[in-house]
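for the record, two folds in this file. i put them one after another cuz i was lazy. first one right below, seq on top, structure tokens after. the second one comes after a little note so u can tell where it starts
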Amino acid sequence: MKTEKLYEQLEKDFINPLLSDDWASHMESVFEFISDNFKKRSMGLVCDNSQEINKVYAAVFPSDEVMQSILNKNETDIMLFVHHPSIWDIRKAPEVWQQMDRNLLEQFRKRRISIYNLHVPLDNYGEYSTSVSLAKVLGIEIKKSFAPYFGALCGVFGKTEFLTIQELRKKFESVVGHKTGFYQNDIDEIKDKTVAIIAGGGNDVNMLNEIAKEGVNTFITGITILNDYSKAAHDYAKENKINILGGTHYSTEKFACIAICEYFKKLGLSAEFINDEPVLEDI
């Protein structure tokens, strides 16, 4: 598929003028590889390296492991779709966002491998969005969206079949494939069998305020570690009796990147998700 046609379709389906983002201001170290359009609005085409796309690989972050695994396939005229254009690693705080490796970016350029990013547009409520995709794999029936975020609505409220948070936690762990974080601030019973979900980094006082107003006592998100940055959110959750389950940044957002492969297949492109490793220190 011609890149121009693919990018126009992605723009039409995911990006609208209400959405904003801010990545480029933190990516100066790799600016020579970044498209002018991305430098201006921090969404869409990150690296413009090809005129034809024959296959799409999807990943949450453009980590060294993800980029190298693509290079190892010895393919050209392909695209890496990422939810984030930088690599999250809370272990390297305060610099939690790491930039793509320059040597790997140079190899991408030579191999005609483009990089495309949808962060806020993929968090925004919709068929392939991060929180919707997480709710689906957890078997949660979505009722409505919430949580304003850069012009998007990034969270969902939904109904679960489980009666207790421990039952839900077991399901959560089976889905993500590893232990989850749990901060108990209320009884084990899930009130009205209703849960709130914000994939990624939703443990924020403003988000929790909306959850409290709905009378919901069960919240699923990604990053839940108790530290200086998150203390206010944890204090708020405790005061308002909101139990919190955390599944890491990567593991709660990967299901959207898996789902987006079906979108590309509908466009007639081969598409494949590339696994990476969760940072368990997130929880």
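(here's the note) second protein begins now
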Amino acid sequence: MPSDIIIIDHGLGNLRSVKRKFDRLGIPAQISADPEKICCSSKLVLPGVGHFSSGMRNLTSRGLLDVIQERVLSAKTPILGICLGMQLMAKHSEEGDVTGLGWFDADVRRFRIQDTQKYKVPHMGWNSLQIKKDTELLRGTAEDELFYFAHSYHLVCHNNDDVIADTEYEYRFVAGIQKDNIIGVQFHPEKSHDQGEVLLRNFAGM
């Protein structure tokens, strides 16, 4: 039988914040870089705060790429990417000029802000979502609820069918994506209070 939710340990920040939030919700989850545990997981979470190239390099150096690809693409294990974790699901990133996991036809680009007095980079703060699709992940989420963002790069998705939510910071950008069992959010549900807890409960129940 599948074991707990595995928070993939790729050596970048925010792993323990995600674990503490699952603990608070009473949802079994553990941080691991052990391929055997990843193989037996019921669901996967790919979090991250940091540099795109470091994320891909760490997944490779820890021998995690093949097992993650098998679990996600072949076994169809649900996976939630958070912030950098979502960006790693794209084909390519400007941050380091690096190839990503390639699960979405998307690129990662630095914010192209015109009004630099009003809009600072990194974007750090609370934004509401414009929900594009009725998905299980966003069930119970209202468009006036706020989620916490902290990032300098964002996803440019070339297939609008993959976008489940967007938001605005001078211009609109992708806040959430989903393709079957593969889900990503640019914001941090683990830092988004009650509305973030709703989202993580929804993911755990998928």
